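Before relying on records like the one below, remember that each one covers exactly one chain. Contacts with other chains, cofactors or solvent are not represented anywhere in the record.
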Amino acid sequence: MKNNTFNFCPDCGSKNIRTEMNGRKWLCPDCGFDLYNNVASAVGVIIINSKGEVLFERRAKDPKKGCLDLPGGFTDPDETAEETVKRECLEETSVEPSNIKYLCSFPNTYEYKGFSYKTCDLYYTAFYSDDVELKPQEGEVVSFEFVKFETEEDIDKADLAFISARNALKFWLKNRNNKC
């Protein structure tokens, strides 16, 4: 399957499978198989240190290998978004953040191996104390960087992997003094 299309029905093998709804539904008229590509949930965490800097990871793999990303990832089955925040931070940084608070959500498209996953990315804020030792998850994170943003233009200049993170950072910047 590439570009959200099947060549054959996964159920009966028919070549008559159709892609509908802009790649979000597949239907086989021969056997009645239908499958929806529903939105997946994912989280991102804007982790701030005592200097007001945001923690970023340098991505170790595609999509967007080498770009900056916030700690986070896809929600596992039977997992809350808050549990995902803690799990992903522990996996990617070896540290559990404190004072986790919901911030906002934005849609995203996650392109991977020719397939477009539509996601709803839930963003949170959290803190790390300055004395923690961050350890990058092998195969996922190359390195860490702390970046301070003063303006939306600063965010636009950052080499960010995903548009939803850019939008969440702009939302955070506008609202960071409003205790949202």
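The longest strand covers residues 98-112.
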